Amino acid sequence: MFKNDQVIDSVTHIVACLNTSDSIQRFLLDIHCILQNITYADNFYVVLFKENGRLSFPYFHDVKDDIRAEELDDVPVDEIGKSLTAYALNCQQVCNYNESQINQLMQEGSVKVLGTVPKQWLCFPLINRNHFMGAFIIQSYRKEDEYSGVIIDVLYAISHVISSALDAFNIQQALVEANESLQSYQKQLEERVQERTHELQKSLAELRMEMKKSESLQQKLEFESLHDSLTGLANRKYLFRELERLSAKSTRTEVEIHVIYIDLDDFKPVNDNYGHHSGDEVLVEVAKRLVKSVRDYDTVSRLGGDEFVVLIDEGLNDSELNQLVERILSTIRKPMLLSCNQEVTLGASIGVTSNRKTLFNAEGMLVQADVNLYEAKSRGKNQSVVD
Questions:
Q1: pLDDT in tens, 260-309
Q2: Contacts of 369 (CB under 8 A, 6+ apart)
Q3: What's the whole-model pTM score?
Q4: How far is the CA of 28 from the CAs of 114, 182, 368, in angstroms?
Q5: Which CATH class is domain 4-223?
Q6: CA-CA distance, 311 to 315, in Å (whole number)?
Q7: Is residue 272 annotated as part of the catalytic site, yes or no?
Q8: Are 251 and 355 in contact (CB under 8 A)?
């Protein structure tokens, strides 16, 4: 059951993102992390209308289909126009389709699904001040009743907050580009938020008072916002914060960074054959093995699904780096005994990049490691590509 405090916490974090995000992609990444604390949201993307009427996908994450947001922006207009996303946008209301309903729409010729047909597909319109900006979509490949009516109501309520926050974020960027002073910008932004979210501000004020009374509660909220709830590892937000910290440090002193991007092989059959509980057991065990494979001060994070990243901020020569990669591959390959008394053996594909040959760029390094990962996957299982 959901508690009001959980919703208030999530709303608080969304509003806080207005002050910490410096790009639309970072802003949506933060919202993705917040939604993952509410419900299963590994498959999440946002679609917005461009000024020319075409669709833009500023953020896309899916654990099943290897699709990038940039690729969707390049899809021809006629194909996008026939997609399930475009179909739902025309409705301009909350859409909740299961696999059977989607297949029926496809048979009727109403839609053409780009990628794998999900078990349950939710679309929440982003509307603010009667302006239809787009929508955010959450989908599940696991089961048709992944999201209950309570969850849908909570996400719908939060969609209004995201719409207001997204509009406020756009205003904030315009103010920054216009080189307004920080004090003037904060005042104008707060006035706009207060005008649109009067009822929300009252709840936030009560929450702030409670947070001041309990330092332990503050620490708990901070930890949960930066860590994966299943494995306890650092999450996407933590990883990006650490990369940006090291990027800033590299402007003052020499910093050598290694990013090791890991994706499990043969993970889907575990879920299919033994259930998602067994899949979660595998993810927890892999997390433990990764932590034991590196040093205490190295960062191990889970990006979602079966994707992990190890961040090394200390210089390693080629031999040491290759030994570490082989150690990770070896420890993941060891058999795992599940609670259902089944033994499974998985492999992994790994992409590695460093900043030894290029200037340190936080997002660029993660993208390059991901590119190397897909190159490793194309070579077969239990492979690694180190540039």
A1: 999 999 999 999 999 999 999 999 999 999 999 999 999 999 999 999 99
A2: 259, 260, 261, 309, 351, 352, 353
A3: 0.46
A4: 22, 23, 21
A5: alpha beta
A6: 12
A7: no
A8: no
Sign of CA dihedral 353, 357, 359, 364: negative
Burial of 272 (0-12, 13-18, 19+ CB in 10 A): exposed
Asked if domains 4-223 and 236-386 share a fold, the reply is: no
Dump the DSSP string for 299-368.
EEEEEETTEEEEEE-S---HHHHHHHHHHHHHHHHS-EE-TTS-EE--EEEEEEEESSSS---HHHHHHH
CA distance 314 to 4: 44
- The domain spans of the chain are 4-223, 236-386
Radius of gyration of the chain, Cα coordinates, nearest whole angstrom: 22
Strand partners, 47: 135
- 229's CB contacts (< 8 A; 6+ apart) are 36, 37
Instruction: List the catalytic residue out of 167, 228, 263, 306.
Output: 306
DSSP 227: B
**Measured between alpha carbons, how far is residue 15 from residues 93, 158, 169, 316 in Å?**
24, 11, 10, 40
Helix (H, G, I), strand (E, B) or coil at 96: strand
Is the alpha carbon torsion for 349, 355, 361, 364 positive or negative?
Answer: negative
CATH of domain 236-386: 3.30.70.270
